[in-house]
Amino acid sequence: MDLVRITTTVDVIYHEGFRRLEQPLRKVAAGAVIKNPFAGRYVDDLSELYAIGAELGARLGETAVAQLAGQPQSYGKAAIVGMDGELEHAAALLHPTLGAPLREAVGGGAAIIPSAKKMGGPGTTIDAPLHHKDAMYVRSHFDAMAFRLEDAPAADEILVIVAVTDGGRPHARVGGLQVSDIQGDDGLA
């Protein structure tokens, strides 16, 4: 992996919706800019990106979780591919191998890790979708975290993001499965 840099964004929310939170919510996104080894050319075998995805899952997961005040509750992932790449490069990084090391970093994670991917250049914003790490039907944790770097990704780069939180949306009150009711057996409930 040709790593260019890692940037971490920490959002600590104290007040939302006209009320103070009982305890602050931390939302953290760690983004890595890497050189795209397949920039400017079509390649059938993308397994080199699978290995990079595993390394980024561990590194970004550990980096993001270290910034939380409490235990990780939600997670998500995203990628922006520079214009000399293709969308499938993001899929190769995010899907086959990034998940297992991210789950290890958050201390479990039975639920699918939601993801987003797109093409773009420097300054492109992406919303990393979030939901509860152990049960995807916990509505209070359906959320997203925006991430952007004003100077990345360059045409020959990929920006890979892992996002985590230590709680659900502030003042969540739209019903659904509650955190206290999670069974965590199948990642759904």
Which features does this protein show?
single chain, 189 residues, alpha+beta, 60s Ribosomal Protein L30, Chain: A, 7-stranded mixed sheet, 3 helices, 18% helix, 34% strand, globular
Can you tell me about this structure?
- By secondary structure, the protein is an alpha+beta fold.
- The chain has one domain: 60s Ribosomal Protein L30, Chain: A (2-Layer Sandwich), CATH 3.30.1330.110.
- Helices cover 18% and strands 34% of the residues.
- It contains 3 helices and 7 strands.
- It has helices spanning 47-65, 87-94, 99-105; strands at residues 3-16, 19-35, 74-81, 115-119, 126-132, 143-147, 157-165.
- Strands 1, 2, 3, 4, 5, 6 and 7 form a 7-stranded mixed sheet that branches.
- Helix 1 (47-65) crosses helix 2 and helix 1 (47-65) runs parallel beside helix 3 (99-105).
- The mean pLDDT is 97.
Topology:
Blueprint: E1 3-16, E2 19-35, H1 47-65, E3 74-81, H2 87-94, H3 99-105, E4 115-119, E5 126-132, E6 143-147, E7 157-165
Parallel strand pairs: 3-4
Antiparallel strand pairs: 1-2, 2-7, 3-5, 3-7, 5-6
**Mean pLDDT reading:** 97
Radius of gyration: 16 Å
CATH architecture: 2-Layer Sandwich
By DSSP, the count of extended strands is 7
Order of helices and strands: EEHEHHEEEE
- Tell the overall outline: globular
Determine the CATH topology: 60s Ribosomal Protein L30, Chain: A
What is the number of helices? 3
Per CATH, the superfamily is: BB2672
CATH class: Alpha Beta
Largest sheet properties: 7 strands, mixed
In terms of quaternary structure, the protein is: single chain
Uncertain runs with pLDDT below 50, 5 residues or more? none
How far do the termini sit from each other?
Answer: 37 Å
**Total separate domains:** 1
**Which percent range describes the beta-strand content?**
25-35%
Helix amount = 10-25%
Derived from helix and strand composition plus strand pairing, the structural class reads alpha+beta
